[in-house]
Automatic annotation (TrEMBL):
It is found in: Cell membrane. This is Branched-chain amino acid ABC transporter permease. InterPro entries: ABC_transp_permease, LivM-like. It is a multi-pass membrane protein. GO terms for molecular function: branched-chain amino acid transmembrane transporter activity. Keywords: Cell membrane, Membrane, Transmembrane, Transmembrane helix. It holds the Pfam family BPD_transp_2. It comes from the Bacteria. The keyword Oxidoreductase does not apply. The keyword Membrane applies. GO terms for cellular component: plasma membrane. The chain crosses the membrane at residues 68-87, 93-116, 123-146, 166-187, 258-283, 295-317. The lineage of its organism: Bacteria, Pseudomonadati, Pseudomonadota, Alphaproteobacteria, Hyphomicrobiales.
């Protein structure tokens, strides 16, 4: 008889494959629903969900797997958005130029701020990332040449080799979902690799990882830069969807929302981050349309899920009966 401790467990593998497939399939079918029922709002709402899901997945990568509680993550979204907006202001609309610039800007900001932030731990790391996030926010508000507090209006969307591929809502939606799928798969590969195992090991015991001759600092810094670049991609897509860039995109309130979405879906699970984003925005939309005091209902519901839903929503979905 094979000992129970080494018996293969297939349920987690099935869940980690089935849940994201269902979520992505559901997103892919939204345009069909929108066309059949002539519901443009659902099309725009699903696009917003997919854009924010990219940012939430990027945050879960460092929060759930590396234990880095970044309270300034929205700064990367704003940097990516402003890169697109500022380039469009200078009549640069090509995606092959603006998107790499947005990703490079997000990665550079992450490298500079991360190199400093990684020297701290716990609440100090939270506070220093918050400080850097607010620094980016106030810098954006001071850019009077690009709208300042009022934000920057884009007179169109990014072009792709001279074609208006981004202008059509359906093609733009599938572009966003494609970026979400690529980001999800990339980060999932990282978490399943030796790189991800080092991050997970350092999260549990940094001293043990250092005893093996591995520097957690470098791995965490690389993870932070990757996360910042993916979040900047979300910002670039967000700017194109709204055709508007605002400093509010990088406020600490937005960073707090991203953390809540991660907690709601389940930390340390990239598909949990997807589910948390969908549930958060859908619940917010339903409750805000029901009563003006929707936050009095929304807040306690989130607290209950986080406190009593072991592993977040993904834990409730994949939990076997009797567990």
């Amino acid at each position: 008889m094979i000992p129970a401790s080494i018996t293969p467990k297939t349920s987690p593998l099935k869940a980690s494959t089935l849940v994201p497939l269902i979520l992505f399939l559901g997103l892919a079918l939204v345009p069909v629903y929108a066309q059949v029922f002539d519901d443009r709002f659902m099309m725009l709402f699903a696009t917003r969900i997919a854009v924010l899901a990219i940012a939430v997945v990027s945050l879960d990568f460092i929060l759930g797997f590396a234990g880095l509680v970044s309270f300034g993550h929205a700064a990367f979204i704003g940097i990516g958005a402003y890169a697109i907006g500022i380039l469009s202001e200078h009549d640069i609309w090509e995606a092959w130029i603006s998107f790499p610039v947005a990703l490079a800007a997000g990665g550079l900001f992450a490298l500079i701020t991360g190199a400093i932030s990684m020297k701290t731990r716990g609440v100090y790391f939270i506070m220093i990332t918050l400080a850097f996030g607010q620094m980016a926010y106030f810098t954006a508000t001071s850019l009077s040449a690009y709208g300042g507090d009022d934000g920057l209006t884009m007179w169109g969307r990014t072009e792709f080799f001279g074609t208006n591929l981004f202008a059509n809502d359906i093609s733009f939606f599938y572009l966003v979902v494609g970026c979400l799928a690529a980001s999800y798969l990339l980060l999932r590969i990282f978490t399943g690799s030796r790189f991800g195992r080092v991050l997970a090991g350092a999260k549990q015991s940094e001293l043990r990882v250092e005893a093996l001759g591995i520097s957690p600092y470098r791995y965490r810094l690389v993870a932070y830069c990757i996360s910042g670049m993916v979040a900047a991609l979300a910002g670039a897509l967000m700017a194109n969807q709204a055709e508007f860039v605002s400093p509010s995109a990088m406020s600490w309130h937005r960073s707090g929302e991203l953390i809540v979405m991660c907690l709601l879906g389940g930390l340390g699970s990239l598909h949990g981050a997807l589910l948390g984003t969908i549930a958060y925005l859908a619940l917010e939309e339903v409750l805000s349309g029901t009563t003006e005091h929707w936050r009095l209902i929304f807040g306690p519901l989130l607290v209950l899920v986080v406190l009593y839903g072991k592993g977040g929503l993904i834990g409730l979905v994949t939990r076997r009966p009797g567990k």
